[in-house]
Q: What sequence folds into this?
């Protein structure tokens, strides 16, 4: 059973692949600038000079994707800044921190990382986007996604996909890259699949909370992928993990210490393998300490998403 007892305040320190080869610092000690308009956001975010942008209020993007350059910290003020009707695009950007933002109703992805490196996405909320909520492709590498919330409220959208790694089987720029850590995220109601779906990558998922009734699958390992799944909580979901067969080397899964409550395992076709999670995969090259999986539902529901973390550190 889930537990609320013990442990005190969660540990929000930087962790995972984004920080494995030195801290991801974003804009570092640059003088913070408060941003209140879409025009200022577009103008200031795109440069590669060190910058800390504190977003305040609502930003109606009107189908635009805001380009985010290197050496950037984007942080929402207070309960979180709202970006609606568009998304963020990190193309070949390095050393980026994105925290305390609500991204919703983008016609395509809520956030796209394309050839980006050393990116920390923390305490953000992703809702109701037209394609994926958070997609990583074209050689993106060294990413941590922590304490975020993913969901769909508009159930008329049949394309309710959470997070895709590798744009296609031909996205070979991702080979040897797509090293990503997902921890303490809330994969919630309305998500159908891709929590995440992984091509090529080395992906570590620990202490995530899955509660997405009516989903198709949660985690999928695809060609050349290695996925390490540890100490997560899966509740009322179908196929906590699976392998999808396609061309190239079959994806691998290692699973340890996970909790399942009212889960269903069911193959959806000859291309889907249900596996125990005993494959040999990579070892994380960073220090990490998981919370007991019994505490994960409480910790994540209490602290994941915009407005629920230490955003101004």
A:
């Amino acid at each position: 059973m889930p537990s609320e007892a013990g442990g005190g305040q969660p540990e929000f320190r930087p962790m995972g692949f984004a920080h494995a080869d030195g801290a991801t610092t974003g804009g570092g000690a640059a003088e913070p600038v408060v941003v209140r308009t879409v025009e200022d956001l577009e103008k200031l975010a795109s440069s590669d000079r060190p910058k800390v942008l504190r977003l305040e209020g609502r930003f109606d993007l009107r189908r635009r994707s805001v380009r985010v350059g290197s050496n950037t910290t984007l942080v929402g003020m207070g309960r979180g800044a709202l970006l609606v009707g568009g998304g963020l695009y990190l193309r070949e950007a390095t050393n980026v921190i994105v925290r305390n933002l609500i991204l919703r109703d983008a016609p395509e992805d809520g956030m796209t990382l394309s050839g980006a490196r050393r990116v920390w996405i923390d305490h953000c909320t992703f809702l109701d986007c037209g394609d994926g909520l958070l997609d990583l492709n074209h050689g993106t590498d060294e990413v941590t996604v922590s304490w975020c919330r993913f969901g769909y409220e508009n159930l008329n959208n049949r394309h309710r996909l959470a997070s895709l790694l590798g744009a296609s089987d031909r996205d070979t720029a991702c080979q040897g890259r797509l090293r990503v850590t997902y921890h303490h995220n809330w994969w919630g109601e309305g998500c159908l699949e891709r929590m995440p779906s992984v091509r090529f990558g080395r992906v570590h998922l620990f202490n995530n909370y899955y509660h997405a009734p009516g989903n198709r699958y949660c985690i999928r390992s695809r060609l050349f992928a290695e996925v390490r799944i540890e100490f997560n909580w899966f509740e009322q979901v179908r196929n906590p993990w699976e392998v999808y067969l396609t061309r190239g080397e079959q994806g691998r899964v290692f699973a340890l210490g996970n909790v399942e409550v009212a889960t269903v395992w069911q193959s959806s076709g000859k291309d889907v393998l249900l596996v125990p999670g005993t494959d040999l995969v990579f070892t994380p090259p960073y220090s990490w300490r998981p919370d007991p999986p019994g505490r994960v539902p409480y910790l994540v529901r209490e602290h994941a998403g915009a407005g629920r973390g230490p955003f101004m550190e």
